[in-house]
Amino acid sequence: SRTYHIYCGPGNNGADGLCLTQMMCALGIKCNAILVDEHSKSTEHAFFKSQLEKYFPEVVIRPQSLSDFINEKSDIVAVDALFG
To answer: Against a cut of 0.70, is the pTM above it?
Structure first.
């Protein structure tokens, strides 16, 4: 099965990505929210990040380096929730 990686920025577009990740997880779709910036810059981002961490903490990824963004062994479909 496919793994969806949702790249989430720290603002409102990232909040949309976090919300999408939570909805996909609730439907049983394999996905990860990749936080490109740990610090929330909007109240919506902070809210959806806390909800995702509460209900699906295993899907939240905090990359430490550029190589953490690349996983050659899985079938990756990327969703950009970085910029407006």
So the answer is: yes
